[in-house]
């Protein structure tokens, strides 16, 4: 096979060693070319560690703002339609749209200047629809790009 391994970008919102939230972009790159079952044609898979997870589909209304807060647990967020933004305590603001991923892991931040965790909200004239996969795992601290 001559195809190169794929790479899927994601934003990682995390807590640094000083207790501030930050975000950086990384890529999922641990793909293996294999079938998902014995009679299934091979495809590229980047299997995550098996964890208990809860899936929630959510729709953020136009004009919605989630004031400063931490993610309730480590969670993957995939934007399905619309746009939203995430601003971390370091002042970095990222806007994401359909097909973009974020891993929210800003638990255990320390409040500074009225900020704790991140600020988020919708962008533009339509609601933002997402799939949120909350993992039942302990959050890490100061491990940006933990899935790369």
UniProtKB/TrEMBL annotation:
Pfam families in the cross-refs: Cupin_2
Cupin type-2 domain: which residues? 58-104
Where do the segments described as Disordered lie? 97-125
- Domain of life, per UniProt, equals Bacteria
Biased amino acid composition, Basic and acidic residues:
107-116
The protein in question is named Cupin domain-containing protein
Species per Swiss-Prot/TrEMBL record: Methylobacterium gossipiicola
- Which classification does the entry list for the species? Bacteria, Pseudomonadati, Pseudomonadota, Alphaproteobacteria, Hyphomicrobiales
């Amino acid at each position: 096979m001559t195809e190169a391994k794929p790479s899927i970008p994601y934003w990682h919102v995390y807590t640094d060693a000083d207790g501030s939230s930050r975000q950086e972009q990384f890529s999922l790159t641990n793909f293996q070319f294999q079938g998902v079952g014995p009679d299934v044609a091979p495809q590229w898979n980047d299997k995550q560690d098996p964890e208990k997870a809860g899936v929630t589909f959510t729709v953020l209304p136009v004009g919605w703002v989630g004031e400063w807060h931490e993610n309730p647990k480590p969670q993957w967020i995939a934007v399905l339609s619309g746009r939203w933004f995430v601003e971390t305590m370091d002042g970095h603001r990222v806007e994401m749209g359909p097909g973009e991923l974020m891993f929210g892991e800003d638990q255990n931040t320390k409040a500074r200047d009225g900020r704790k965790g991140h600020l988020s909200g919708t962008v533009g004239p339509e609601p933002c629809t997402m799939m949120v996969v909350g993992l039942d795992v302990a959050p890490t601290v100061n491990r940006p790009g933990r899935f790369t």
